[in-house]
Amino acid sequence: MYGEPSQDDIQVDYEGGRVVEIQARLDLRNPNTALLRAIVEATAAAEAVFVSSEERVFEAEWNAVVAEILASRAARFVHDPMGYLKWLTNTSAHQDTSSQS
Fold it and tell me: Best exposed site among 20, 42, 59, 84 by fewest CB in 10 Å?
């Protein structure tokens, strides 16, 4: 792992000496746009794609990455922690009632 778990960090997974996955977690409380731009550029240079924590696949293109970040649960939480927790509670309650039918 590179970085700090409570801030920005990058984890690289290897199989047979070959990189098979890179996970990046960015601290949206204090966005590091230079790091994000470097990650996007390296991903594009490797002809790879991004997969969000919600398993959405998107291209290594600046606007797509920023749009995905802004739509993320993490960004919702940072923007409005209490509102996010209320939404999460309502979503969970809705899932509980729909699974009972």
Answer: 20
Using alpha carbons only, give the angle 70, 72, 76 rounded to the nearest 5 degrees.
80
Domain-by-domain residue ranges, the chain? Answer: 2-100
Tens-place pLDDT, residues 43-89 = 999 899 999 888 899 999 999 999 999 998 889 999 999 999 998 88
| Residue at 97: amino acid letter | T
Element (DSSP H or E) covering residue 35: helix 33-45
Q: Distance from CA of residue 73 to its chain's centroid?
A: 9
For the chain, strand residue ranges (E) read: 2-3, 9-15, 18-25, 49-51, 57-59
